[in-house]
Amino acid sequence: MLMGTLPIASASSLSFSRRRPSFPSNSFTHSSVCHIHNCYNHRPSRRLALFQLGTAIPQSQLFGSKAAKLLRVEGNSIESTSGNMATAVKEKDALHWVQNDKRRMLHVVYRVGDLAKTIKFYTECLGMKLLRKRDIPEEKYSNAFLGYGPEDSHFVVELTYNYGVDKYDIGNGFGHFGIAVEDVAKTVDLIKAKRGKVTREPGSVKGGTTIIAFIEDPDGYKFELLERRRAPEPLCQEMLRVGDLDRSINFYKKGFGMELLRKKDNPEYRYTIAVMGYGPEDKNAVLELTYNYGVTEYDKGNGYAQIAIGTDDVYKTAEAIKLCGGKITREPGPLPGINTKITACLDPDGWKSVFVDNIDFLKELE
Fold it and tell me: Distance between CA 160 and CA 294 in Å, rounded?
Protein backbone atom coordinates (compact mmCIF):
# COMPACT_ATOMS: atom_id res chain seq x y z
CA MET A 1 0.00 0.00 0.00
CA LEU A 2 2.86 2.31 0.80
CA MET A 3 5.52 1.11 -1.58
CA GLY A 4 3.48 1.96 -4.67
CA THR A 5 4.31 5.61 -4.25
CA LEU A 6 8.04 5.23 -4.00
CA PRO A 7 9.02 5.38 -7.70
CA ILE A 8 7.84 8.97 -7.93
CA ALA A 9 8.22 10.30 -4.42
CA SER A 10 9.84 13.53 -5.57
CA ALA A 11 8.98 16.05 -8.23
CA SER A 12 12.36 15.78 -9.88
CA SER A 13 11.72 12.24 -11.04
CA LEU A 14 8.50 13.09 -12.86
CA SER A 15 8.06 14.06 -16.46
CA PHE A 16 4.72 15.46 -17.51
CA SER A 17 3.04 15.35 -20.88
CA ARG A 18 0.09 17.52 -21.76
CA ARG A 19 -0.59 15.75 -25.04
CA ARG A 20 -2.93 12.78 -25.01
CA PRO A 21 -3.30 10.23 -27.79
CA SER A 22 -6.87 10.17 -29.06
CA PHE A 23 -9.00 7.03 -28.92
CA PRO A 24 -12.62 6.24 -29.73
CA SER A 25 -15.06 7.67 -27.26
CA ASN A 26 -16.47 4.22 -26.58
CA SER A 27 -13.38 3.44 -24.54
CA PHE A 28 -14.82 5.64 -21.81
CA THR A 29 -17.60 3.18 -21.01
CA HIS A 30 -19.21 2.40 -17.67
CA SER A 31 -20.92 -0.99 -17.38
CA SER A 32 -23.47 -0.84 -20.26
CA VAL A 33 -22.59 2.79 -20.95
CA CYS A 34 -21.08 3.09 -24.41
CA HIS A 35 -19.27 6.30 -25.42
CA ILE A 36 -20.00 8.65 -22.62
CA HIS A 37 -18.96 11.75 -24.52
CA ASN A 38 -21.11 11.77 -27.61
CA CYS A 39 -24.25 9.65 -27.54
CA TYR A 40 -26.35 11.22 -24.84
CA ASN A 41 -29.44 13.33 -25.12
CA HIS A 42 -28.62 16.00 -22.60
CA ARG A 43 -31.32 16.75 -20.07
CA PRO A 44 -31.26 19.84 -17.81
CA SER A 45 -30.36 18.87 -14.26
CA ARG A 46 -33.06 19.08 -11.62
CA ARG A 47 -32.28 21.72 -9.04
CA LEU A 48 -32.34 20.99 -5.34
CA ALA A 49 -34.85 22.91 -3.24
CA LEU A 50 -33.67 26.50 -2.73
CA PHE A 51 -35.12 29.01 -0.32
CA GLN A 52 -35.39 32.35 -2.11
CA LEU A 53 -34.96 34.51 0.96
CA GLY A 54 -36.09 38.15 0.85
CA THR A 55 -37.46 38.06 -2.70
CA ALA A 56 -41.06 36.85 -2.42
CA ILE A 57 -42.55 40.07 -0.95
CA PRO A 58 -41.79 43.64 -2.09
CA GLN A 59 -39.59 45.55 0.34
CA SER A 60 -42.17 48.36 0.65
CA GLN A 61 -44.66 45.89 2.16
CA LEU A 62 -42.11 44.62 4.63
CA PHE A 63 -40.55 47.86 5.80
CA GLY A 64 -42.68 50.72 4.45
CA SER A 65 -41.81 52.99 1.53
CA LYS A 66 -39.31 55.14 3.46
CA ALA A 67 -37.42 52.15 4.76
CA ALA A 68 -37.51 50.59 1.33
CA LYS A 69 -35.87 53.68 -0.11
CA LEU A 70 -33.12 53.46 2.48
CA LEU A 71 -32.66 49.79 1.72
CA ARG A 72 -32.23 50.54 -1.96
CA VAL A 73 -29.35 52.86 -1.08
CA GLU A 74 -27.63 49.99 0.72
CA GLY A 75 -29.22 47.39 -1.56
CA ASN A 76 -26.00 45.73 -2.58
CA SER A 77 -25.22 44.58 0.92
CA ILE A 78 -28.80 43.43 1.57
CA GLU A 79 -29.01 41.45 -1.67
CA SER A 80 -25.57 39.98 -1.16
CA THR A 81 -26.49 38.82 2.34
CA SER A 82 -29.71 37.21 1.11
CA GLY A 83 -27.88 35.49 -1.72
CA ASN A 84 -25.25 34.12 0.63
CA MET A 85 -27.93 32.79 2.99
CA ALA A 86 -29.75 31.09 0.11
CA THR A 87 -26.51 29.54 -1.11
CA ALA A 88 -25.67 28.34 2.39
CA VAL A 89 -29.09 26.68 2.74
CA LYS A 90 -28.73 25.09 -0.69
CA GLU A 91 -25.27 23.70 0.08
CA LYS A 92 -26.37 22.42 3.50
CA ASP A 93 -29.34 20.54 2.01
CA ALA A 94 -27.25 19.09 -0.82
CA LEU A 95 -24.39 17.94 1.39
CA HIS A 96 -26.77 16.48 3.97
CA TRP A 97 -28.42 14.46 1.20
CA VAL A 98 -25.05 13.21 -0.07
CA GLN A 99 -24.13 11.88 3.37
CA ASN A 100 -27.37 9.86 3.48
CA ASP A 101 -27.32 8.61 -0.11
CA LYS A 102 -26.83 4.86 -0.62
CA ARG A 103 -23.48 4.76 -2.40
CA ARG A 104 -21.04 2.01 -3.29
CA MET A 105 -18.05 1.70 -5.59
CA LEU A 106 -19.38 -0.48 -8.43
CA HIS A 107 -16.49 -0.97 -10.83
CA VAL A 108 -13.38 0.61 -12.30
CA VAL A 109 -12.89 0.99 -16.05
CA TYR A 110 -9.58 0.84 -17.90
CA ARG A 111 -8.29 -0.09 -21.34
CA VAL A 112 -6.20 -3.09 -22.32
CA GLY A 113 -4.42 -4.11 -25.50
CA ASP A 114 -5.32 -7.81 -25.57
CA LEU A 115 -8.58 -8.72 -23.85
CA ALA A 116 -8.13 -12.50 -23.98
CA LYS A 117 -4.60 -12.29 -22.59
CA THR A 118 -5.66 -10.04 -19.71
CA ILE A 119 -8.67 -12.21 -18.85
CA LYS A 120 -6.39 -15.27 -18.74
CA PHE A 121 -3.93 -13.49 -16.42
CA TYR A 122 -6.63 -12.24 -14.04
CA THR A 123 -8.43 -15.57 -13.79
CA GLU A 124 -5.39 -17.85 -13.60
CA CYS A 125 -3.02 -15.67 -11.56
CA LEU A 126 -5.26 -13.39 -9.51
CA GLY A 127 -8.17 -15.77 -9.00
CA MET A 128 -10.84 -13.50 -10.49
CA LYS A 129 -13.93 -14.81 -12.25
CA LEU A 130 -15.13 -13.69 -15.67
CA LEU A 131 -18.59 -12.31 -14.83
CA ARG A 132 -19.70 -11.22 -18.29
CA LYS A 133 -18.29 -10.24 -21.64
CA ARG A 134 -19.70 -8.48 -24.68
CA ASP A 135 -18.59 -7.39 -28.13
CA ILE A 136 -19.90 -4.25 -29.85
CA PRO A 137 -18.61 -4.60 -33.44
CA GLU A 138 -20.53 -1.60 -34.76
CA GLU A 139 -18.61 0.58 -32.29
CA LYS A 140 -15.38 -1.42 -32.63
CA TYR A 141 -14.84 -2.33 -29.01
CA SER A 142 -15.31 -5.19 -26.54
CA ASN A 143 -15.38 -5.27 -22.78
CA ALA A 144 -15.28 -7.80 -19.98
CA PHE A 145 -16.23 -7.64 -16.30
CA LEU A 146 -14.15 -9.60 -13.80
CA GLY A 147 -14.14 -9.82 -10.03
CA TYR A 148 -14.43 -11.95 -6.93
CA GLY A 149 -18.20 -11.97 -6.63
CA PRO A 150 -21.48 -10.75 -8.20
CA GLU A 151 -21.56 -7.19 -9.49
CA ASP A 152 -24.54 -6.31 -7.32
CA SER A 153 -22.43 -6.75 -4.19
CA HIS A 154 -18.73 -6.55 -5.18
CA PHE A 155 -16.32 -4.04 -6.65
CA VAL A 156 -15.18 -5.36 -10.06
CA VAL A 157 -13.01 -4.36 -13.01
CA GLU A 158 -14.34 -3.49 -16.45
CA LEU A 159 -11.71 -4.08 -19.13
CA THR A 160 -12.19 -2.31 -22.45
CA TYR A 161 -10.53 -3.33 -25.70
CA ASN A 162 -10.73 -0.94 -28.67
CA TYR A 163 -10.26 -2.70 -31.99
CA GLY A 164 -6.74 -2.31 -33.31
CA VAL A 165 -5.31 -0.57 -30.23
CA ASP A 166 -2.79 -2.84 -28.53
CA LYS A 167 -0.98 -0.41 -26.24
CA TYR A 168 -1.91 2.44 -23.90
CA ASP A 169 -0.03 5.06 -21.94
CA ILE A 170 -0.82 4.56 -18.26
CA GLY A 171 0.86 7.82 -17.25
CA ASN A 172 2.20 8.52 -13.77
CA GLY A 173 -1.01 9.66 -12.07
CA PHE A 174 -2.57 6.23 -11.70
CA GLY A 175 -0.97 4.26 -8.88
CA HIS A 176 -2.22 0.70 -8.42
CA PHE A 177 -5.07 -1.61 -7.50
CA GLY A 178 -5.02 -3.52 -4.23
CA ILE A 179 -5.96 -7.20 -3.94
CA ALA A 180 -6.31 -9.06 -0.64
CA VAL A 181 -5.03 -12.64 -0.81
CA GLU A 182 -4.71 -15.43 1.74
CA ASP A 183 -1.00 -16.04 1.06
CA VAL A 184 1.08 -13.42 -0.76
CA ALA A 185 4.12 -15.67 -1.22
CA LYS A 186 2.09 -18.47 -2.87
CA THR A 187 0.32 -15.97 -5.12
CA VAL A 188 3.65 -14.51 -6.22
CA ASP A 189 5.02 -18.00 -6.96
CA LEU A 190 1.97 -18.69 -9.15
CA ILE A 191 2.39 -15.40 -10.99
CA LYS A 192 6.06 -16.16 -11.64
CA ALA A 193 5.13 -19.62 -12.94
CA LYS A 194 2.76 -17.92 -15.40
CA ARG A 195 5.58 -15.56 -16.41
CA GLY A 196 3.99 -12.59 -14.70
CA LYS A 197 6.08 -9.62 -13.64
CA VAL A 198 6.87 -9.17 -9.95
CA THR A 199 8.20 -5.71 -9.09
CA ARG A 200 8.36 -6.08 -5.30
CA GLU A 201 9.00 -9.42 -3.64
CA PRO A 202 6.82 -10.50 -0.69
CA GLY A 203 7.74 -8.87 2.59
CA SER A 204 6.39 -6.79 5.41
CA VAL A 205 5.55 -3.13 5.02
CA LYS A 206 8.30 -0.96 6.46
CA GLY A 207 7.34 -0.12 10.01
CA GLY A 208 4.48 -2.64 10.01
CA THR A 209 3.62 -6.32 9.88
CA THR A 210 1.35 -6.60 6.83
CA ILE A 211 2.88 -8.77 4.11
CA ILE A 212 2.68 -7.24 0.64
CA ALA A 213 4.09 -7.63 -2.86
CA PHE A 214 3.74 -5.71 -6.12
CA ILE A 215 3.11 -7.16 -9.57
CA GLU A 216 2.19 -5.87 -13.03
CA ASP A 217 -0.43 -7.22 -15.41
CA PRO A 218 0.27 -7.67 -19.16
CA ASP A 219 -0.50 -3.99 -19.86
CA GLY A 220 1.66 -2.63 -17.04
CA TYR A 221 -1.10 -1.84 -14.53
CA LYS A 222 0.27 -2.32 -11.02
CA PHE A 223 -1.37 -4.47 -8.37
CA GLU A 224 -0.50 -4.52 -4.69
CA LEU A 225 -1.05 -7.91 -3.07
CA LEU A 226 -1.98 -7.61 0.62
CA GLU A 227 -2.07 -10.61 2.91
CA ARG A 228 -5.49 -10.68 4.57
CA ARG A 229 -7.44 -13.65 5.86
CA ARG A 230 -10.99 -14.14 4.58
CA ALA A 231 -11.37 -10.65 3.09
CA PRO A 232 -15.02 -10.07 2.07
CA GLU A 233 -13.92 -7.69 -0.72
CA PRO A 234 -10.67 -9.01 -2.29
CA LEU A 235 -10.48 -6.21 -4.88
CA CYS A 236 -10.04 -3.82 -2.02
CA GLN A 237 -8.27 -0.67 -3.17
CA GLU A 238 -7.51 1.77 -5.95
CA MET A 239 -4.74 4.36 -5.64
CA LEU A 240 -4.63 7.67 -7.52
CA ARG A 241 -2.15 10.54 -7.14
CA VAL A 242 -3.42 14.05 -6.48
CA GLY A 243 -1.87 17.52 -6.41
CA ASP A 244 -3.51 18.88 -3.25
CA LEU A 245 -4.47 16.26 -0.68
CA ASP A 246 -6.58 18.45 1.60
CA ARG A 247 -8.53 19.76 -1.40
CA SER A 248 -9.18 16.21 -2.60
CA ILE A 249 -10.22 14.98 0.84
CA ASN A 250 -12.68 17.84 1.15
CA PHE A 251 -14.08 17.19 -2.34
CA TYR A 252 -14.57 13.45 -1.87
CA LYS A 253 -16.12 13.94 1.56
CA LYS A 254 -18.60 16.59 0.48
CA GLY A 255 -19.27 15.79 -3.18
CA PHE A 256 -18.92 11.98 -3.06
CA GLY A 257 -20.03 11.37 0.53
CA MET A 258 -16.91 9.33 1.34
CA GLU A 259 -15.42 9.05 4.81
CA LEU A 260 -11.79 9.81 5.57
CA LEU A 261 -10.85 6.41 7.00
CA ARG A 262 -7.23 7.24 7.72
CA LYS A 263 -4.44 9.60 6.78
CA LYS A 264 -0.71 9.00 7.06
CA ASP A 265 2.29 11.19 6.34
CA ASN A 266 5.59 9.58 5.30
CA PRO A 267 8.17 12.38 5.41
CA GLU A 268 11.05 9.95 4.90
CA TYR A 269 9.70 9.17 1.41
CA ARG A 270 8.09 12.59 0.94
CA TYR A 271 4.48 11.58 0.44
CA THR A 272 1.18 11.51 2.31
CA ILE A 273 -1.79 9.19 1.78
CA ALA A 274 -5.50 9.49 2.61
CA VAL A 275 -7.79 6.47 2.46
CA MET A 276 -11.40 7.32 1.54
CA GLY A 277 -14.41 5.04 1.30
CA TYR A 278 -18.00 4.15 2.09
CA GLY A 279 -17.29 1.83 4.97
CA PRO A 280 -14.53 0.10 6.96
CA GLU A 281 -11.36 -0.55 4.99
CA ASP A 282 -11.29 -4.25 5.87
CA LYS A 283 -14.78 -4.83 4.43
CA ASN A 284 -15.11 -2.45 1.50
CA ALA A 285 -13.22 -1.27 -1.56
CA VAL A 286 -11.55 2.07 -0.85
CA LEU A 287 -9.89 4.92 -2.72
CA GLU A 288 -6.33 5.72 -1.66
CA LEU A 289 -5.24 9.25 -2.59
CA THR A 290 -1.51 9.95 -2.60
CA TYR A 291 0.21 13.32 -2.50
CA ASN A 292 3.92 13.42 -3.37
CA TYR A 293 5.60 16.46 -1.83
CA GLY A 294 5.81 19.34 -4.28
CA VAL A 295 4.02 17.58 -7.16
CA THR A 296 0.80 19.32 -8.19
CA GLU A 297 0.12 17.81 -11.61
CA TYR A 298 0.32 14.37 -13.21
CA ASP A 299 0.15 12.80 -16.64
CA LYS A 300 -2.96 10.62 -16.66
CA GLY A 301 -2.17 8.89 -19.94
CA ASN A 302 -5.02 7.24 -21.83
CA GLY A 303 -5.25 3.79 -20.23
CA TYR A 304 -7.14 4.41 -17.02
CA ALA A 305 -10.71 5.66 -17.52
CA GLN A 306 -12.93 6.03 -14.43
CA ILE A 307 -14.69 4.67 -11.36
CA ALA A 308 -18.44 3.96 -11.40
CA ILE A 309 -20.37 4.65 -8.17
CA GLY A 310 -23.98 3.84 -7.33
CA THR A 311 -26.41 6.54 -6.18
CA ASP A 312 -30.12 6.87 -5.46
CA ASP A 313 -30.43 10.10 -7.48
CA VAL A 314 -28.07 11.22 -10.25
CA TYR A 315 -29.70 14.65 -10.42
CA LYS A 316 -29.02 15.49 -6.78
CA THR A 317 -25.57 13.96 -7.10
CA ALA A 318 -24.68 16.25 -10.00
CA GLU A 319 -25.91 19.30 -8.13
CA ALA A 320 -23.86 18.47 -5.05
CA ILE A 321 -20.73 17.90 -7.15
CA LYS A 322 -21.17 21.30 -8.77
CA LEU A 323 -21.51 22.94 -5.34
CA CYS A 324 -18.23 21.31 -4.29
CA GLY A 325 -16.32 22.61 -7.31
CA GLY A 326 -16.43 19.46 -9.44
CA LYS A 327 -16.97 19.59 -13.19
CA ILE A 328 -19.97 17.79 -14.70
CA THR A 329 -18.97 16.27 -18.04
CA ARG A 330 -22.26 14.49 -18.66
CA GLU A 331 -25.45 16.12 -17.37
CA PRO A 332 -27.67 13.74 -15.38
CA GLY A 333 -30.29 11.81 -17.31
CA PRO A 334 -31.16 8.46 -18.90
CA LEU A 335 -29.04 6.78 -21.54
CA PRO A 336 -30.67 6.30 -24.93
CA GLY A 337 -31.96 2.79 -25.47
CA ILE A 338 -31.50 1.35 -21.99
CA ASN A 339 -32.75 4.34 -19.94
CA THR A 340 -30.18 3.89 -17.20
CA LYS A 341 -29.72 7.25 -15.52
CA ILE A 342 -26.13 8.43 -15.06
CA THR A 343 -24.04 11.54 -14.61
CA ALA A 344 -20.28 11.92 -15.14
CA CYS A 345 -17.86 14.33 -13.48
CA LEU A 346 -14.22 15.27 -12.93
CA ASP A 347 -12.61 15.83 -9.55
CA PRO A 348 -10.25 18.81 -8.96
CA ASP A 349 -7.35 16.82 -10.46
CA GLY A 350 -9.29 15.74 -13.53
CA TRP A 351 -9.96 12.13 -12.44
CA LYS A 352 -13.24 10.95 -13.88
CA SER A 353 -16.15 9.24 -12.11
CA VAL A 354 -19.56 8.10 -13.31
CA PHE A 355 -22.54 7.91 -10.95
CA VAL A 356 -25.17 5.30 -11.86
CA ASP A 357 -28.73 5.07 -10.58
CA ASN A 358 -28.88 2.13 -8.13
CA ILE A 359 -32.22 0.75 -9.30
CA ASP A 360 -31.34 1.11 -12.97
CA PHE A 361 -28.00 -0.64 -12.40
CA LEU A 362 -29.69 -3.66 -10.86
CA LYS A 363 -32.13 -3.80 -13.78
CA GLU A 364 -29.18 -3.83 -16.19
CA LEU A 365 -27.68 -6.82 -14.40
CA GLU A 366 -30.95 -8.73 -14.77
Answer: 34
